[in-house]
Give the backbone structure.
Amino acid sequence: MGTKVLVGGKNVVIQRRSKAEPKARSKLHRASTTFLRPLKCDLRRIIPSLALALFADIALIVSALTAKSDSSNAVYSDAQAARGHRLYIEHCAACHGMMLEGQNSVPLSGATFRVRWADEKHTVDDLFYIVRTLMPYGQPATLSKQEYVDIVAYILMTPSPIRRG
């Protein structure tokens, strides 16, 4: 009354209903599921791995949050500012003046600069983005990323830009 079939290395019996039963039910087949056994897992091996993954995830989240909150306390070195001063004289001073006073362009120091950049809406990253993507005028993005960082460090080093006290 049944047909034996080899499935997954196990004999499975497919049984057909008798012809005496209605046709709708004769299409139903029953297969033995003895070859389906619950997956055995050793929790003693899995738990340490899960704990390590959870710890690493928490460490990454804390690191990202710390980096974000420390960005307002970012520092630059005197060496960066000195390199930035040399680069500023070479690439920026013709328009922005030797003292960042803004001869032919906007000043990078003084009250005008403070009004624009110390408004709690703009960040040092915003200043860096503008300098990196728009300057030098007529030749944007021609310096290396480090050179732009050094120039921004020089601008921030001058006595009149943004100072939070």
About this structure: The domain at 76-157 is CATH 1.10.760.10 (Cytochrome Bc1 Complex; Chain D, domain 2). The first helix runs from residue 23 to 26. Residues 161-165 have pLDDT under 50 and may be disordered. The two ends are 91 Å apart (CA to CA).
